[in-house]
Specification:
DUF3108 domain-containing protein; alpha+beta; 4 helices; 8-stranded antiparallel sheet; signal
């Protein structure tokens, strides 16, 4: 099972098939399938190390640049994934996956984001997790867009959500109302995930004819930069 704490909605939908018929399977949204039901690591040939850059820009507190590394190894026929999410004092401890399928970098990014939300607001981890999961199930925007990876143009699928836009507790988390998450995935890049981003800024006023939107107050971006040894 990939990231059980993030797949609750999907698991319930699958269990409901026996009671409600094949149509119940449609409760699993395309975004959930893409992120949580896809074997992102199927085309990676271990041993391999995927390296991602991590960048935080903020006008609320100090930004930084760091690194995320995913080590993959084949042990007793199973793919073992060890995630090193950030370094030094910022390092986030995540247990190794002994039989990995989905890319755990996604888990690391989401857990980091929720920890930051809790730190900045004092809100509940489970509440933020629920809002993200509900947005993926009910309000995700999907698009197909090209991206350039290591000098080549490949097709990618992009998922965008705004979990707090219709948040019933928006009065408490008003500044996060327009926070946007963007997930860029492609079968043509190692590990399936090219870029993950969370962006907190003011509403987009360009479409209304008003002044251009202000830059994000907090912008965190994780981007795949290399894999060794080079994958076929």
């Amino acid at each position: 099972m990939l990231f059980p704490q993030w797949r609750t909605g999907a698991v319930l939908a699958v269990l409901a098939v026996s009671a409600a018929g094949p149509a119940a399977a449609q409760q699993i949204s395309p975004a959930e399938t893409l992120l949580f039901e896809t074997d992102h690591l199927a085309k990676v040939k271990p041993p391999a190390t995927l390296v991602y850059s991590f960048r935080k820009d903020s006008n609320m507190e100090s930004g930084f640049k760091d690194e995320v590394r995913l080590d993959l190894a084949r042990i007793n026929g199973k793919l073992r994934a060890t995630l090193h999410f950030l370094t030094g004092e910022r390092k986030q401890e995540i247990p190794a996956l002994e039989e990995a399928h989905g890319n755990p970098v996604l888990l690391g990014f989401l857990e980091h984001d929720i920890a930051e939300m809790k730190r900045l607001t004092g809100g509940s981890r489970s509440y933020f997790q629920k809002r993200i999961r509900m947005a993926l199930a009910e309000g995700a925007q999907l698009s197909v867009e090209p991206l350039t990876y290591q000098g080549k143009t490949v097709q990618a699928q992009t998922v965008r959500i705004q979990p707090y836009l219709n948040d019933p507790m928006h009065a408490r988390f008003e500044k996060y109302l327009h926070k946007t998450y963007t997930f860029v995935l492609s079968e043509q890049v190692p590990g399936g995930l090219y870029q993950l981003r969370s962006s907190l800024g003011k509403p987009d006023t360009v479409r209304t004819g008003a002044a251009p939107a202000a830059p994000p107050m907090i912008d965190e971006t994780l981007t795949l930069i290399s894999v060794t040894p080079k994958q076929p």
